[in-house]
Design goal:
There is one protein chain. The chain is α+β, with helices and mostly antiparallel strands and 147 residues long. It has one domain: Chemotaxis protein chec (3-Layer(aba) Sandwich), CATH 3.40.1550. Helices cover 39% and strands 28% of the residues. It has five helices and eight strands. The strands form two sheets. The protein has a six-stranded antiparallel beta sheet with strand order 1-7-8-4-3-5. The protein has a two-stranded antiparallel ribbon with strand order 2-6. A hairpin with a 1-residue loop joins β7 and β8. The radius of gyration is 16 Å and the shape is globular.
Length: 147
């Protein structure tokens, strides 16, 4: 399970050092792809396989499936960590997530998210903070979450 928030920086070649606590889980490789809210998702190989199966289970006749699958798979890049624990983030993915230098690396359970630091700070201070507060309030009363 991936947890925590880490501040890192891209080098001039678009490489990113991943937190040491994530590296063992990614030793056999990982997949990067476009995430929601203009971040990148990083999956270990097993979780990526589960994501592939989840996407495949959606009927192809569903237009939203086709759109999601196109974006998810077309942006995907398989990666191997180098000896320094770095991954190469392709230019297209860097552009999608507006990654220039400073990034936030988040452990989000079954995946890692990579955000531009300023975008993450704005997201966290804005809609995410209010949503988290609303969900926390609802679950503390025994509810199932906001609908």
């Amino acid at each position: 399970m991936f947890v925590g928030e880490y501040a890192h920086a891209l080098d001039g070649k678009g490489r990113l050092v991943l937190p040491s606590r994530f590296r063992d889980d990614l030793a056999s490789g990982c997949y990067l792809t476009k995430g929601q809210e203009r971040c990148l998702y990083v999956f270990d190989e097993q979780q990526f396989d589960r994501e592939v199966e989840r996407v495949r289970s959606i009927p192809r006749a569903d237009r939203s499936y086709r759109t999601y699958a196109r974006v998810f798979f077309s942006g995907a890049s398989d990666q191997q960590l180098d000896k320094q624990g770095r991954i190469q983030i392709p230019a297209g993915l860097r552009a999608y997530a507006s990654l220039n230098k400073d990034v936030a690396i988040l452990g989000v359970g079954e995946r890692i998210e990579i955000w531009d630091s300023e975008t993450w700070a704005a997201y966290l201070a804005g809609e995410a903070d209010q949503f988290y507060s609303d969900i926390s309030e609802d679950t503390s009363r025994g509810g199932g979450g906001s609908q």
